[in-house]
Design brief:
The complex is a heterodimer of chains A (112) and B (109). Chain A is mostly beta strands and 112 residues long. Chain A is built from no helices and ten strands. In chain A, β9 and β10 form a beta hairpin. The chains are: A mainly beta (112), B mainly beta (109). At the A-B interface, β5 of A face β3, β7 and β8 of B.
């Protein structure tokens, strides 16, 4: 069936980087944009950006420009989201989504 | 930056109709998507392209859009519909940036 499987929880120090993966299965990987969305504890959903798996084109939310990088490995139908210079307020659950199908989320803890 | 506006909460009794609004200047020209999120779970798409319902979503969920306001309607709300609901759309700039509304907590009791 169509699904997005994300990598496991991460614990990082402030200032470090985190790279979350999202592997697609059950559909043509290059046919759908992948969006990345995060949700801090007790807060709403926040759009971070998208990547086009067919072209590699990306669009990032202005808030994350310069800190976020979204990449692909089409050989394994996987998208990556890397966030650098982590701060305590980056602690959140990070989701990848095909708009209609979402990954289960990856918890990123920023802990000094 | 572009923003969508939603009421923070809506409360209805079981069997009543819940209406959740989403306002945004670009909505006359851009589609709205609606997501349901229950505690501790990933969001679920309940309406796409203003008024289309994905397969598996109960018929009591419907969407509409007029002018700068989109509306998600739950006709005959059930206790299991208690959740946070988010609208999602793009702005008019053409650069395909997306934004979520702040979310509406729907209580059915």
């Amino acid at each position: 069936q169509v699904q997005l499987v994300q990598s496991g929880a991460e614990v990082k120090r402030p200032g470090a980087s985190v790279k979350v993966s999202c592997q697609a299965s059950g559909y043509t990987f290059t046919g759908y944009y992948i969006h990345w969305v995060r949700q801090a504890p007790g807060h709403g959903l926040e759009w971070m950006g998208w990547i086009n798996p067919k072209s590699g084109d990306t669009k990032y939310a202005q808030k994350f420009q310069g800190r976020v990088t979204m990449t692909l490995d089409t050989s394994i139908s996987t998208t990556y989201m890397e966030l650098s210079s982590l701060r305590s307020d980056d602690m959140a659950v990070y989701f990848c989504a095909r708009l209609d199908i979402w990954g289960h989320g990856t918890m990123v803890i920023v802990f000094s | 930056s572009y923003e969508l506006t939603q009421p923070p909460s809506v409360s209805v009794s079981p069997g009543q109709t819940a209406r959740i609004t989403c306002s945004g200047d670009a909505l006359p020209k851009k589609y709205t998507y609606w997501y349901q999120q229950k505690s501790g779970q990933a969001p679920v798409l309940v309406i796409y392209e203003d008024s289309e319902r994905p397969s598996g979503i109960p018929e009591r969920f419907s969407g509409s859009s007029s002018g700068t306001m989109a509306t998600l309607t739950i006709s005959g709300a059930q206790v299991e519909d208690e959740a946070d609901y988010y609208c999602y759309s793009t702005d008019n700039s053409g650069d395909r940036s997306y934004v979520f509304g702040p979310g509406t907590r729907v209580t059915v009791l």
